[in-house]
Every structure is written in structure tokens, then in C-alpha cells.
Amino acid sequence: MPALGSQRRLLGSLNCTPPATLPFTLAPNRTGPQCLEVSIPDGLFLSLGLVSLVENVLVVAAIAKNRNLHSPMYYFICCLAVSDLLVSVSNVLETAVMLLLEAGVLATQAAVVQQLDNVIDVLICGSMVSSLCFLGAIVVDRYISIFYALRYHSVVTLPRAWRIIAAIWVASILTSLLFITYYNHKVILLCLVGLFIAMLALMAVLYVHMLARACQHARGIARLQKRQRPIHQGFGLKGAATLTILLGVFFLCWGPFFLHLSLIVLCPQHPTCGCIFKNFNLFLALIICNAIVDPLIYAFRSQELRKTLQEVLQCSW
């Protein structure tokens, strides 16, 4: 976060700031290709954050209200909503503070602003890590529920789920503190990229395996009903479409940001990479968009949760 001449250390330091302020120097793009820079208005950035905030607060409120949703699967979804909420809040808070500082409305000492900057950095980094981890936890939970259905309730117990949730939050906080402390080491960026690749690979492998099992089950039903081809093709297309949406949203929303981190390590001075660095705010906006889409994919598809959400909205009025 630009604060009295200083830059946000882990995430903001990767922005298209003057070369002298970056932990990895970026060469000016004078003779390179024409750069396409997508500008994200502050109003749009704040609006996306507020929409995500409202959406994820509703998810948490609905799960907290309905005891039927007090199960490991919904606890993972609730924690994902909290993580996405923190992603949005931290980015909105940073944008708001930057605007207030630039307008001269917020006047404070450099040390205070730096401490606020550190807190926001920890929130942003920790919430991103926890969001990725809870996405992975949800995928694993669904995989176990399909392939080990008879043993699911003995494998995924509430105490075990709580231990997993606590471990993810503790690891996210410690990881964010480590990243902020050693922000200028390339290995830190590589660890972030490695986490993204691991989560993407985990989701792809497990979801493809689940789709294959579902298609196999559909073929078995089709043989019994002697309508093999129509059922199998229709179910396969629907499953493939769902899989494409799940992996596509994850990759499109998170991929550009981690591509940005990879290029910081691989080609910090290349003009073409410099063009990508200029769109840092767009990449953060995509992550906030992911925080908006996650409830639609993982929470609002549940009829029980939607019913509870209606009750929550009616009570609020």
C-alpha cells in the first residue's frame, strides 16, 4: 500500500511501481511491445469488494443459523466464505486508506501507516492462502463422500474437521507472517506459486476422477434401463460442463495473479513481462471476483442453505 513514499511489501511491491521501489527491479518498457494496461477504477474495486462482503456474510449467517448445516462439509464452505470475506475486506480497506491518504483526509505518522500496512498485508496474504486451502479441503471432502460413502461419517468426523480447519488457519497466519518478513526472497514467491499449482492439480485430478465415476455409474443405470446412449451422453456433457466451470473459474480468477508472481522471478526486466506487471490491480480484482463466484458455486447450490438464506433475509427486514 503506498504510504508516505513506501510500498506494500508482499503484494503491492509487485505492482507497477517505479523500479527503484521494487524488491526485484523492473526495466522501463521503452523499446518493447505496446502494453495493454487495464485500469480498474477505485469505485469498481470497492463495489466488487462490498458485493463479495455481503455475499459471504450471508453464507456465514445462514450456516450459523441452521443446525442442519452444522456438518464438516458446510463448515469448510463457511470457512471458505470467511476467507473470501477477508480477501475482499483487506483489499477494500487498503484501497480506502490509499484514497484517504491521497486526498489528504487521513493524516497520520509514517510509523502508524506502516503498521497498518503490515496488518493489511498479513490479512491479504493469509486470507489468500486459507482460501486456496479451503477450496482444496472442499474438493477432498466431496471426493471422500463419493468414493468412501459408507465410511464417510467415520472418516470425516466433526472433531477431525475442526482440527483441519484450525490447522489451515494457523498455517495461513504463520505463512503470511513468513511471507511478509521475507518478502524480498524469490523462494517466497515460488512457494506461493507452488501452492496454487498444487491446489489446481488436486482439484483437476479429484474432479476428473469424480466425473469418471459418475459417468460409470450413469452407464450402469443406462444398461438397466436399456437407454444407454442418451443418458450417458447427456450426463457426461453436464458433468464435463460442471467440471469446466469449477476449474475454469478457479484458473481464470487466480491464474493471472500467480502468473504475475512467476514472472517476477523468471523475467523481472523483460519488456513483455513489464506489460503484465502493469495489470496488477486487474489481477487483484479477479481474485475478488472469485470471492463473489465461490458462494454461487459451493454454497447457494444447496437447497437447504438457500431456504435458510431466505429466512435470514426475512428476519433482517
Automatic annotation (TrEMBL):
Classify the protein's membrane topology as the record does: Multi-pass membrane protein
Q: What region holds the G-protein coupled receptors family 1 profile domain?
A: 55-298
Arranged from A to Z, the UniProt key words for this protein are: Cell membrane, G-protein coupled receptor, Glycoprotein, Membrane, Receptor, Transducer, Transmembrane, Transmembrane helix
**Signal peptide boundaries:** none
Compartment(s)? Cell membrane
Q: Membrane-spanning regions, if any? A: 44-63, 75-99, 119-140, 161-181, 187-214, 235-259, 279-300
Q: What processes does the entry annotate via GO biological process terms?
A: regulation of gene expression
Q: Name one GO cellular component term.
A: plasma membrane
Q: What Gene Ontology terms describe what this protein does at the molecular function level?
A: melanocyte-stimulating hormone receptor activity
Q: What does the subunit comment say?
A: Interacts with MGRN1, but does not undergo MGRN1-mediated ubiquitination; this interaction competes with GNAS-binding and thus inhibits agonist-induced cAMP production. Interacts with OPN3; the interaction results in a decrease in MC1R-mediated cAMP signaling and ultimately a decrease in melanin production in melanocytes.
Q: What does this protein do?
A: Receptor for MSH (alpha, beta and gamma) and ACTH. The activity of this receptor is mediated by G proteins which activate adenylate cyclase.
Tell me the protein family, please: Belongs to the G-protein coupled receptor 1 family.
Question: What is the protein name for this chain?
Answer: Melanocyte-stimulating hormone receptor
The gene for this chain is: MC1R
